[in-house]
Task: inverse folding
């Protein structure tokens, strides 16, 4: 250790351990030299470091004094002793909705694409385009057209690391006093953004099929936020009829639609359908898509398609935004799409989830005697448990190493996304026993 | 091609090429069967697809009609013909400030860390913690303490894909009517966030050293935004005196400070200094750090350290936020830090930039007879060019394959970050000739 460091460590320790108290004077530089048998420069160096780090203060012409209070001493001690640890829980069955099928994704292929990008140092050592890499915008433009019927130009696409950061940018372009209509959703990320901006939120009633048009007509709103693949009390994909009704009503009233098309392309129980955006003759739909469920949840890439109006506003401010999504992942993903892997993988996923859903439905019908419905986009069943001791259910699940989401309004949501086909029945049997045990 | 697809493609083409006009009736299903010699199911399948994609509409009991206007036809055609292309410009010398040294980063090491994470499929197939991966928060807590003197607990850290998305979250927690003070900055990402929220922005005057304390006292603000490594008219790191003045004034007036510590640790021309955060006895500083300049600009990881007040508010809303930074990059980065590579790399970078800065300074003094000053954090020199035809300068640079940022207020900013040591002199000579040519 260098000499000044020894001096520094000595006084630091003295302060942290309470030998030198707050406001107490330190030995003068000359005294320290004699005391510790070191040069003046060494002591000065050490004292300066202590000043810089906020342990002591220098009163010119007077001397050095301890300048740190008890709380900060505790903080210093805590961080110094801080041990890096990380607890990972493992579960027998995982019914939580934030997981995906682990074996469906060809990691090998994805790694190859990442590697190709990493091998090109020039790509990695420059900032990305704040709107998203152009190659990825081109690829997404084609993909969204083919798979979702979205009509747009790559210039209209904004890529972000997640759907919420895109909404933060979009909603910052809205006028003050914007009124936003949406279905009731607890803890929704979209709602958080609207609330952050202080926009007035009107909750629109819903029926089994989706938004209630009659109730919608009663609200005076500027923007309507909808989740087009998971609508209404039964979380169904939006029907053709409702789609037309919404588009003609919003066109007439000059309302913008934010279409959250979360997992819209991942159909395995219902028929394929296109997004609203492509049907809007009035260009009043802003479309959002994401890939966390199609590829890897850990991959943070979402995109938003501006309509012309907001595209123009964004374009003027573009320089004031920074890129959010990883350039590495963006470039790898662009080539992955261009080479056709995304559509291939989507096809594979649909088949896999169609099977899993069949097994799941059968098992629920057989073992769980409660009303249920499928939320296709979220890959889960919502089960209405009315006479259940919820906290007992949660505890019992934990005891048996079963991971579930928390229960809201007596509804238990169980996802089959990450369960193996062969374990679905056993998982449901075990869950049904826990439910029985927790019945009141 | 499947039979229904042939029928579908035929009518789609007829519509897009104008053989079937808007509102015109299609042949009935029976007529199409006879016309095209296919089964009724095949025609129905094709017609349904055309309805779904918004080309035709079905009037029950009457028939199918074209339902698409000219603008949408053009859009369909455009996207169908869309060619994926990507133009990459190459430059002889790149003076733009968004680049970094290409050879300083050990890509091999970084790839190894990425690979380790990718090999653990369980990590990749689950969503991340919306606050950021805990292991990375732990590692950053230690790093920020060691390198920046930041005092915090991992729970106080919020990780995001960039500094702006963190600010979007933070500013959404502020009260309505918040007044924010900041130095004048054109196109700043922070300003964009404040403006998005409609917060009143007070521009605080600056002098050569940083914020003008006398002017600050004249403004009634709730939050002060400062860039602690690049302050004032001469973009200097904040002085010890100003640091103390700011902390005691903001403590007295109950003002929160947002400390943007962009590149604060990357000192190569000035002395090391600690961030404000660690000196705040009043816990009124929110700290932001980022790594785009330390590692790879393409790596999107930034972090924010809440003070206790905003940490508590955030904690209550945490469920309503989604993760923004790539989990892959977060986990790789955590281990990279824990293994000491970040601090090692920082040391290497400082040495490299110290050398480059020496060469750059010498060359500017020798060849460019205009006033200049160094912006250490942004790795660039600002040169005051008063009698220059700016558009001619820009054009001439382009002609000679020299990349520069645009000129603001007669100030040309040239970065040495991505120049090789050996090319600095020649680059400056070439630039000086262009400047001479563009003089008025």
Result:
């Amino acid at each position: 250790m260098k000499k000044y460091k020894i001096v520094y460590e000595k006084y630091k320790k003295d302060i942290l351990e309470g030998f030198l108290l707050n406001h107490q004077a330190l030995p003068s530089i000359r005294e320290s030299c004699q005391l510790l048998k070191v040069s003046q420069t060494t002591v000065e160096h050490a004292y300066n470091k202590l000043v810089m780090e906020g342990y002591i203060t220098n009163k010119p012409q007077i001397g050095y004094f301890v300048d740190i209070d008890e709380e900060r001493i505790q903080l210093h001690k805590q961080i110094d002793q801080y041990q890096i640890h990380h607890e990972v829980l493992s579960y027998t069955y995982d019914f939580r909705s934030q997981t995906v099928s682990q074996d469906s994704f060809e990691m090998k292929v994805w790694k190859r694409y990442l590697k190709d990008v990493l091998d090109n140092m020039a790509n990695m050592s420059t900032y990305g385009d704040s709107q998203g890499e152009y190659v990825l915008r081109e690829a997404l433009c084609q993909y969204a057209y083919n798979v979702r019927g979205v009509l747009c130009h790559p210039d209209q696409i904004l890529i972000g690391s997640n759907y919420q950061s895109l909404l933060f940018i979009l909603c910052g372009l809205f006028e003050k006093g914007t009124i936003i209509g949406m279905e009731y959703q607890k803890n929704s990320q979209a709602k958080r953004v609207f609330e952050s901006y202080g926009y007035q939120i009107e909750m629109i009633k819903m029926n089994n099929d989706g938004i209630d048009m009659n109730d919608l007509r009663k609200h005076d709103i500027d923007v309507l936020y909808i989740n087009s693949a998971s609508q209404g009390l039964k979380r169904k994909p939006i029907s053709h009829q409702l789609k037309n009704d919404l588009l003609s009503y919003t066109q007439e009233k000059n309302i913008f639609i934010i279409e959250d098309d979360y997992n819209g392309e991942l159909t395995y129980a219902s028929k394929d359908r296109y997004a609203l955006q492509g049907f809007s003759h009035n260009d009043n739909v802003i479309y959002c898509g994401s890939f966390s469920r199609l590829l890897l949840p850990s991959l943070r890439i979402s995109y938003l398609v501006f309509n012309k109006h907001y595209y123009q506003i964004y374009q003027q401010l573009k320089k004031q935004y920074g890129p959010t999504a990883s350039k590495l992942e963006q470039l790898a993903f662009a080539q992955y799409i261009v080479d056709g892997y995304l559509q291939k993988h989507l096809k594979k996923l649909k088949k896999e989830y169609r099977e899993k859903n069949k097994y799941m439905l059968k098992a629920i019908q057989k073992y769980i005697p409660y009303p249920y419905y499928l939320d296709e986009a979220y890959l889960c069943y919502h089960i209405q448990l009315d006479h259940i001791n919820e906290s007992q259910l949660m505890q019992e699940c934990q005891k048996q190493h079963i991971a579930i989401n928390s229960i809201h309004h007596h509804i238990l949501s169980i996802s089959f996304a990450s369960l193996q086909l062969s374990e679905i029945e056993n998982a449901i049997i075990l869950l049904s026993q826990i439910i029985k045990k927790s019945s009141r």
